[in-house]
Amino acid sequence: MTKRNDDWLIEQKYVDNVKLAIERKLDTITENAGDLKESIIELRRNFWDDVTINLDDIHEVGETFTSIKQQVELLSERERAHKQSYKQLQSLRRLAYSPFFGRIDFRENGEEQAEKIYIGLASLMDESEDQFLIYDWRAPISSLYYNYSPGPAEYEVPNATIAGEIELKRQYIIKNGRLKSMFDTGVTIGDEMLQEVLSNNANTQMKTIVATIQKEQNQIIRNEKSKYLIVQGVAGSGKTSAALQRVAYLLYRYRGQLQADNMMLFSPNFLFNSYVATVLPELGEENMQQTTFQSYVEQRLGREFTIEDPFDQMEYIYSDHEASGKTARMAAIRYKATDEFKKVIDAYLALLSHQGIIFKAITFRGAAIFSANEISEHFYSLDNANSISNRLHLTAEWLLRELAIFQKKEWKNDWVKAEIELMDKEEYLRVFREIESIKSEDDVTFNDFDMEEKLLAKQIVKQRLKPVKIAIKKLFFADVKRMYRRLFTDDGTRMLSRAADLPDEWADICSLTVEELDKNELKHEDATPYLYFSDQLRGKKSNTTIRHLFIDEAQDYSPFQFAFFKQLFPNSRMTILGDGNQAIFAHTMNSPTLLSPEVFAGVEHTRITLKRSYRSTRPIVEFTKRLIAGGEEIEPFNRDGEKPTLTETNDKKQFLEKMLLRISLLQESGHQTIAVICKTAKESRIAFRELGEQFNVQLMDKAAQTFSKGILVLPAYLAKGIEFDAVIIYNAADERYGQAAERKLFYTACTRAMHELHLFSAGPRTRFLDEVDESTYHLL
Ligand SMILES: Nc1ncnc2c1ncn2[C@@H]1O[C@H](COP(=O)(O)OP(=O)(O)OP(=O)(O)O)[C@@H](O)[C@H]1O
C-alpha cells in the first residue's frame, strides 16, 4: 500500500472517530433537549397552578407578583437552554456531514512533537472534554492555516505571539461523512481545492468560503484594529464573501459582547439581500440586520415626499433620449453628492443660526395661536451659542407652556359648549369615562352639574388640542421643506453668495430642484442632503446600537453619504467594500466615492486591495479585464473554460435565432443559472417578450426579492453583486454601450459570468471592444 493510500485510510479513520464522538454528543443533547422541551411544555401548561395568587391586600399583591416573576424567569431560562441545545444540535449535524476541511501539523518552538490541528466549521471536544478533535475556523490557532504555507509560522493569542513550524498542511473535501478528496498543499491554500469549489455551478444563494479563504481575504476577516476598513477589490475577488465571513468571525471573537443585532449591512438591493442571506446561518450564526439605503430614506421621508429610487434614477440616466433638462439633472446628481455641497449646506445652516429660519404659524380652528413671527422672535431671543436644534427644542417647551395657558382660556368659549351639545352618545360616554378616571385619580368627588360640565369642556379642549401639542413636540413649526427649497431660489443664492462657492451650473440646478420639490417629489440625489439638513436643524438622529456597519458596493455611495453615515452611526466601526470599476451611478462617474482615498485623508483607516478574481474562468477574466482602464492589474484565478463569444449581426431575425440557439446549448451543457443581462428595465421587458415565446423565462425587476434557477432576464444594475453560470449580454451594440459613462455598466454586466459569457450585438459592436484583443474571444 502506498503512503498516500495509508494516509487516506488514516484520515478516513479520523473522520469515523470524529463522527462517533459527534453521534454520542448528538444522543446526549437530543435526550437533554427532549427533557427540556417536556419541562417547558409542563411549565407552560401548569403556569397558573404553580403561582400563588392573592390580591387581598397590598402585601399579598407584592407576593403574587414575585411568584409570577419567578415562574416567568424559570420558564425563560429553560427556553434559553432549549434554544442553546437546538443550536448545538444544528452545529453538530453540520459537523457530522463534513467534520473538517483542513489540517495543519504545528510544532511550537521548544516542543518535540507537532500537534495535529483539524479545522472545521465549529469546535468539537473529545468525550473527556480535554482535547480538541476539531478547532473552529475562527480560533486563533486556525489563522495559521489561512496565513502560512509549511515552514515557520506564528499566531496571536491575547497578549502573546506563539511561534513554531508548520510541518504539514492538508485540505479535505468530506461529504456525508466520507472523505472525497484530500490535498497536501505547499502554497497558502491549494489551487486544487479552489479549482474544485469554483468549477461547481452557481447557486441562487451565496456559499460560504471558509475552507478556502485566501491570505489577503483573511486579513479582512480578522481585522480588529481599524475603525474604518476599506477594501478595494476587483470584480469577483471575494469582497462580499470576506464581509460575511468577517461577521461570523466577529460574532465568535466577541461572543457575549456583540450580537448579530449590533451589526448592519447596507446592500444594493433586496435581491442581493436574499442572495447573501443563507451564508451566516450556514456558518451557524444569526444574520445581521440587512437594509438598503433606499429603505432607510423611505422610512424617514416616505410620508412627506414621493421619493425616487436609485433604479429609476438609473433608468433615466441610461435612457436613450436626450430628455430636455438631462444636462442640468446630471450636473445636479453629481454636485449634490459632493463634499462641496455639504459645505454649502453647512454654510446655510450657519446663516440660519442667526436669521432666516422659516417658521410655520401654529393654528387651531382656522386661526393662528402663535404667529410665525412670534415664534421666530422667541427663537432668535435665545442665546445663539446653543445649536439650532437645541433652540428649537427650547422653543417647543416655551410653546407648550403657552399652549397650556391658551387651553385654559378656551374652556369658556362658545365652540366648546356647542360641541358638548352636538356630541353623540358614544362620544359623550367616552369623554365622561375619561373624566371619571381623572376624578378617581384625583380622589375628587363632584356632584353638581356645573362642575360636571366644566370638566367636560376641559376634556374636549384637551382632546382637540392634542394634535397641536404633538406637532409642537415634533418641531413641525420649523418648516424644513421650505428652507431646503429656499436654498435653490434667488433668496437662498443671495444668502449664500458670500458664504459658499457655488458651481457654474447652479442656476440650472436650482430651477430643476424647485420644480421637483413643488411637485412634492424628492429625487434620489436630494435624499441624503435633505436628511442631513433636516437632522442638523431638528437634532441628529443616531443609532447607537450598531457597532459594526458593513457597506457593500461602496462605489455607489458618495462622500456626502459617508458624512451622513458617520453621524448616524457614531459608535460604529465600518467595513467598506467595493470596486471603483463598477461605479455605475451617475454621481460616481468621474467623481469621488466612498472608496476614494481623498475621502479618508486625515482619518485613520486601513485599506486593503484585492486583485485576484475568483468568480470567472481565466478566459473570461482575460477578456473583461481589457474593458476597463487599469484592468491589466487584475489577476485571474487559473481556471479553464471557453473563451467568450461575440455574435454580431444586422439581421434582427438572425440575432434572435442565434440567441435562442445559444440558450438551448447552455441548458444542454447543464448550466443552471443563465442570465440575460440587459442595459435597462425597459430593454429587459423587450428581451423577456422575445425569449419568453420559446423558453420559460423569469423577468427580474427592482422589486424582485429572490430568484430561482433557470433563465433570468434582468437589467445590469440589478445583477450587481450576483453571479450566474452563464451570462448573455442581450445587446452589446455601440448604440447601447457607446458613452463613456456606460463602460463600467458594461464591465459590471460581463463580470457576472462564472463559466460562460456570450455577447450579442444587433448592429456594430460597442466601441469598448475596440481595445480588446480579438484573440480573447470568438467572433461568431
Ligand atoms: N477564497 C475563496 N474560496 C472559494 N470561493 C471564493 C473565494 N473567494 C471568492 N470566492 C468565490 O468567488 C465568487 C465571487 O465572490 P464575491 O461575490 O464575494 O466577490 P465580490 O468581490 O463581492 O464580487 P463583485 O464585486 O464582482 O460583486 C463567489 O462565487 C465566491 O464564492
TrEMBL record:
Keyword Nucleotide-binding recorded: yes
A Gene Ontology term for the protein's cellular component: cytosol
Gene Ontology BP term (one): recombinational repair
Keywords, ordered alphabetically: ATP-binding, Helicase, Hydrolase, Nucleotide-binding
Keyword Hydrolase appears in the UniProt entry: yes
GO molecular function terms listed in the Swiss-Prot or TrEMBL record: 3'-5' DNA helicase activity; ATP binding; DNA binding; hydrolase activity
Domain UvrD-like helicase ATP-binding: 212-617
Residues where ATP binds: G233, V234, A235, G236, S237, G238, K239, T240
Lineage: superkingdom: Bacteria
NCBIfam families associated with the record: HelD_BACSU
Name of the molecule in the record: DNA helicase-2 / ATP-dependent DNA helicase PcrA
Organism, as annotated: Evansella caseinilytica
